[in-house]
Amino acid sequence: MTNNMCAEKNIVNKGIHERINWCDIYKGIVIILVVIGHCTTQFNHFIYQFHMAAFFFISGYTSQPKNKSLFDDIIKKFCRLMVPYYTINLVGIILFFFCDKLNILNKISGTVYPETFQAALHGLLSNKAVYCDWLGAMWFLPVLFWSSIIFTLIVKLCTKKISMVFISVLIFLISMSAVIQNKDCGNKDLVGLAQFFLVVGYVVRSIKPKFDSFRGNLIKACIIAVLLGSSLRLGLKFVVDWPSRQFNGVIDLFLPFGGIFLIITLSKLLSTSQHLEKFFAYIGQNSMSIMCFHFIGFKAAYLILIIIEKMNPTEFSRLTPGPGVRNLWWFITPISIFFSVVAWNLLCKSNIVRNLLGYGNPLKIKWIIKCKDIINKLSTNIKVFCLKWGNTIGTSRLKKLFIGIVTCTSLILLGTKLISYYGEINVIFPDVQNQIFYEDGWLPQSKTENYRWMNQKAKFSVLLIDQNHLEIKGFIPENIIGVSKCIINVNDREVFYADMTNNQAITIDIDISDFVKKYKLNKFEIEIDGQRIPNTSDSDQRVFNALINSMKIY
Description:
Layout: H1 2-39, H2 44-47, H3 51-61, H4 70-101, H5 105-108, H6 117-125, H7 140-157, H8 161-180, H9 188-206, H10 214-233, H11 257-270, H12 274-285, H13 287-307, H14 329-347, H15 351-359, H16 366-393, H17 395-419, E1 425-428, E2 436-438, E3 452-454, E4 457-464, E5 469-476, E6 485-490, E7 493-499, E8 504-511, E9 520-528, E10 546-553
Antiparallel strand pairs: 1-10, 2-4, 3-10, 4-9, 5-8, 5-10, 6-7, 6-9
Helix pairs in contact: 1-3, 1-11, 1-12, 1-13, 1-14, 3-7, 3-9, 4-6, 4-7, 4-15, 7-8, 7-9, 8-9, 8-17, 10-11, 13-14, 16-17
């Protein structure tokens, strides 16, 4: 009996060991793909379909929120994610402050530093801007922190997996609507999208998928790879870029899972090779350091390339490799990863720095222990009250009531957002409706101007449902030189062409029913050649060629 128990224990331990190993391998593969994606655009049509969603997925897969205290979980995650986020970025903006004062910032970075350090500090603390592009990937940490809290609440409040997924999808759709409308939500929209992949990762883990044979994993990897390759060859290149809010709508609910499951099967395959397993697992265990420092690692690679005369020194300020060295991604990527891991491990040799990088145990701090005791007493009283109320009206009814309220509220919020896109979309500047996403070619506008300047090619995107006509009104000033035409493209197809001159009103009303996509984000481009080139004596140094008074899509 004892021998059987020992054998069973060994099997359990082996299973846990295998699970951790393949998850570390998974993280190693994904973080390498992240660095490659930042290093070259050559593979981004594939990598950018799933790379960030894959990290959120594995975080949900390895989480066990039901077995943890909510207070403990929040404190640990804050110290693991937010403390290093604020610490590293604070060091970064201080360094860039002195570089800016010494007039060398433009030689090492493309960051435009604010006039005061207080403004830079406010941008960091408000989580709106970090004036240190060397740490550009660290937006991921606060998004993971807040999405983990939402994920934990969903898992603790919902007993059934279908309820978890349903509520998570509603939050995802509301957040995607905010992204499409270009709402200024800080990172709240990204948090709402990320929590969905955490929930799915947790649900997949609860299904208890078995480890298949080497042959089974190889066949699955080949099938997924063929399907993904075929979709790319057919032109289905749905690129997703989280920090720049480049999404594709509802399809982003499903898009990343092809890449995610391909990485899972590759991870299980690599776990069968001792040397490859150790390499990728080590990279995965250091994914935090690589995420935080790999842009600085690019600078280390740039120095080597400049020394061997493979790179122009003027390109050192670039955050990512320029066109001249992107083909050397195979050299820059390992240098960046090596630098990140070595720098992080050297910093961690100091106990103080190690704690600031998220490796301390906050639950041993006295004031945190006292806060935990107070919260535990408060939560106990709340639980007693809820149990009494639940026994009065029925616990199952109470849960159904809560889920019903959440569902109805979410559907109402989502419905009101969609309703705003039905019928006439009328843009009169200054635009306060936030229905249109303005892209390249639009000059900044004050809150008092009832028009907006554009420069040659002005692009915007908008979700369309039942609209078939486009109306644009504006004016080309007299001092615009070289005006000859006006072209309008809808979804990269020309829908309007007319000859134009300066000192001319713009009045366009065209049928676009054959060019728009219903229930999708549509891309518009207004092109007017000619420009106003200011003299050095002019108070207004802006370059523009036309002003737009209003746009109507009906």
